[in-house]
Amino acid sequence: MKKLLYILLIFAQTLWAQSDFETGNALYAKENYKEAVKNYEAIIATGNQSAEVYFNLGNCYYKLQQVAPAIYYYEKALLLNPNDTEIRTNLEFARKMTIDDIKVIPKVGFHKIIADFTSTYHYDAWAWVAIGLSFLFFVFFLGYYFSGTTTKKRLFFSGMFLVLFAIVLSISSGIYERDRMLKEKPAIVFAETTALKNEPKVSATDAVLLHEGTKVYILESIANWKKVQLTDETTGWIESEAIREIKN
Questions:
Q1: Residues 201 and 145 grouped into a single domain
Q2: pTM of the predicted model, to two decimals?
């Protein structure tokens, strides 16, 4: 009985979320962005999340000229759908609204090559690739087992070897991408202005003044302070309430 009630509750939440999503879309079409935001955020409040909802929220805040939440929700959408060109394009437009012009120092070397390759897909997508290749491996195995000639057996065996290599590669890529994403803790500055300090205390000297919408990476935490790194590799301490983590 409890399982049935649980299933019904999930079904009701799904229907409710779909209703909010459609209502939000209708409000957005009417340029009623503030009310559309309420509907999209109501979906998130139920525990449901999707790239579409985050993307639409980003669009609403972009239209409202609220740079920090616009970038924040575009970034969250990109986490769920990293290959979506529309999300990337809108994110770049939103970034142009920021005041801070912080350079991005490109990473080089072998680790960059690996990261560029594994980030092609989300780690969940890599898992599905491995599953699909496993079925292909089984097909090649059947072909090898039932083949009546040596030539065909060699052909199917070679196929099995190549598919097995691809399976190992996709699994390794998924594991690497998952570990990379877990270690990386990006956040967006939500305070209109906030100082990046040289030490985790209010009286410390300012390293740089940051404005809303700037992206930082959290390195460690002490009390209500976060040690962060900027895209130009500048590091410092920032008050926790000044930023909002993207992966939460």
A1: no
A2: 0.76
Domain count for the chain:
3
Residue 100: inside a domain = no
Cβ-Cβ contacts under 8 Å for 112 (sequence gap 6 or more): 106
Give the helix ranges, DSSP H, for the chain.
2-29, 33-45, 51-63, 67-80, 85-95, 110-118, 123-146, 150-183
Q: Which residues pair with 245 in a beta bridge?
A: 187
Question: Do 11 and 91 lie in a common domain?
Answer: yes
Q: Between 8 and 54, whose confidence is greater? A: 54
Q: For residue 178, what are its two tokens?
A: 């998952």
* Whole-number pLDDT of residue 122: 79
Rounded (10°) angle between helices 2-29 and 33-45: 160
Both 20 and 73 in a single domain? yes
Q: Taking a C-beta distance cutoff of 8 angstroms, is the pair 236, 207 a contact?
A: yes
Which of 216, 155, 154, 231 is closest to 186 using CA atoms? Answer: 216
Q: How many residues does the chain have?
A: 248
Over the stretch 201-238, which tens digit does the pLDDT of each residue have?
A: 999 999 999 999 999 999 999 999 999 999 998 999 99
pLDDT band at 18 (very low <50, low <70, confident <90, very high): low
Strand partners, 222: 225
Average pLDDT, the chain: 88
- Residue 173 CA to residue 167 CA, distance in Å, equals 10
